[in-house]
Design a protein that fits this description.
hydrolase activity, acting on ester bonds, 12 helices, SGNH hydrolase-type esterase domain-containing protein, five-stranded parallel sheet, Ester_Hydrolysis_Enzymes, 41% helix, 2 domains, Rossmann fold
Length: 289
């Protein structure tokens, strides 16, 4: 039987398909995919070491198992560092996040940015709202230029539970109301609103941890304090970290199922980006990585 000659078009398409699978082995079915690379970027509410004895594990440790149950394989790098703001985050972005070339970055800052170092005699937040928003915008723009997807999270709410801070703020009447259940959140609420606005403006995915925690606490038999470390009232407890993990699992699963991107960006098939017909012929349309 005489074989028909391949046209140049189909030859190129076949080359795209038959390029060594090891170069992009994760692009066809979920079972064959290389794990998604995720970086969790934040402060001590993200960091793995700061509160390990009190939390059991943080959300970045929980995510791989939780997403695996949804058929999504991931590697999660924890780039959280305690007692840091978006200012430090901006400074270490290249080293701690971009260097890993992540598919997805989870960002959560705000508690330290809005924090008043009352024990040092200060009466204003560490960062102004303007700088906070600018830093978040810069971080997001840099990651978007890399092609990474982004999930921006509001900070978790806090409660008065640490006697040290209660006493310290009582020395400055009128600054924060130590008698109000949500008094510690007076500034945090404003910075959380800025996070929501930045997410809306940049078009990134928003997970509103603050509202989810507060909603949890509104349910009968579910005090919000059980989501926070006892005696601390600032950092999520094991149950709080589990809730954040569940919220992220839902958000990432929806993102992975809905987002579609041509394989044109893969090494070896760059011409597909200029020829949608070629990408279709090569059957190289995949869920976004």
């Amino acid at each position: 039987m005489k074989l028909q000659q391949f046209s140049p078009f189909w030859s190129i398409a076949l080359v795209c398909v038959l390029l060594p699978f090891t170069a992009f082995s994760g692009e066809f079915s979920q079972s064959e995919k290389s794990p998604l690379q995720i970086v969790a970027f934040g402060d001590s509410t993200t960091a793995v070491y700061d509160w390990k004895s009190s939390t059991g594990e943080v959300y970045a440790q929980c995510l791989p198992r939780s997403l695996a149950r949804q058929g999504i394989a991931v590697d999660v790098i924890n780039a959280g560092i305690g007692n840091t703001t978006t200012r430090e985050g901006r400074e270490r972005l290249d080293r701690d996040v971009r260097a890993h070339q992540p598919n997805l970055v989870i960002i959560q800052f705000g508690i330290n940015d809005s924090w008043i170092d009352i024990d040092l005699g200060r009466t204003k937040p560490r960062l102004t709202r303007e700088e906070f928003r600018d830093n978040l915008g810069f971080i997001i723009s840099q990651l978007q230029s890399d092609g990474a997807a982004i999930i921006l999270m509001t900070p978790n709410p806090m409660r008065w539970d640490d006697p040290f801070y209660i006493d310290a703020f009582q020395q400055y009447p009128g600054l924060l109301d130590t008698g109000a259940e949500r008094g510690l959140n007076a500034l945090l609420d404003v910075y959380a609103a800025d996070v929501r606005e930045v997410a809306r403006h940049t078009g990134v995915i928003l997970i509103d941890v603050l509202r989810e925690f507060e909603d949890y606490g509104q349910q009968s038999g579910q005090p919000i304090n059980e989501l926070l470390i006892a005696g601390d009232g600032i950092h999520p407890s094991e149950k709080g970290q589990s809730l954040v993990c569940a919220l992220l699992t839902k958000g990432i699963t929806e993102w992975a199922s809905e987002a579609v991107e041509p394989v044109a960006v893969f090494p070896g098939c760059l011409n597909c980006s200029k020829n949608p017909e070629l990408a279709t012929a090569a059957n190289l349309i995949r869920p976004m990585q």
